Amino acid sequence: MIPLINKIIDAHGGSDYWNTLEALEAEISLRGCLFTAKHIPVLNHVRVRALTREARFSFFDFPQPGQTGDFFGNEKVCITGSHIKANMERLTPRSAFRNIRRWFYWDSLDFIYFGGYATWNYFLTPFLFLRKGFHFHELGPVSGTFGTWSRLRVTFPDDIPTHCRTQIFYFDEHYLLRRLDYTAEVVGRWAHASHLCDEYKEFDGLKIPTRRRVFPLLFGTKLLPRPTLVAIDVHDLRPVRVT
After folding, report:
1. Rounded distance between C-alpha atoms, residue 118 and residue 212, angstroms
2. Which of 2.50.20, 1.25.40, 3.30.420, 2.40.128 would CATH assign to domain 3-241?
3. Is there a contact between 43 and 65 (Cβ–Cβ < 8 Å)?
4. Model confidence over 66-113: pLDDT tens digits?
5. Burial level of 231, CB count in 10 A (0-12/13-18/19+)?
6. How do the domains of the chain map onto residue ranges?
């Protein structure tokens, strides 16, 4: 692992502390023109839970109060709850996005897959980099009115559900994540995006960005300032220690 990774991990809370955690519980809001285009309603102050040791994410009271939308990696998504006659599930949910219907709208299970893997990635990064199978290449820094940011090209292992296998991560002078560039392949191979991370806060030892905004990426590192494809606000977060 390159020395920069250790500095990044330490800046966000450190590996020793991270290894004591089993989950992150949070209250978040999600919106953006991507979800509007796919006929997904705004999620306002929804409770979520991300496991730290496996690809598992839950949306509570979604899609309806009393229901839970669960993401189980690339294996399954499901909706459970006492107010539905039978549990709803979809196996190998990523492959379902090949259906032309997804170009026009997503159902709740589609959103649970996309929102589940994406938000799980966001909550766990950069600690995901501690797992086996990642490959890193340090790129030249970039400078601007924001200062000078370090860059990493990161190749994900096949067993991590994510937007695309190779992504570019930017870190500020304090080694905090400030931007990531990727292609949201389940949306389309043309869906190049730049994801900005701001308003860092510390929650019981973890430093995380509480304001995230995703914009179209034109070419190279040039992003469009509008429209906002996805907006994520973290209102509260609670690390859960291993019992």
Report:
1. 12
2. 2.50.20
3. no
4. 999 999 999 999 999 866 655 799 999 999 998 888 888 999 999 999
5. middle
6. 3-241
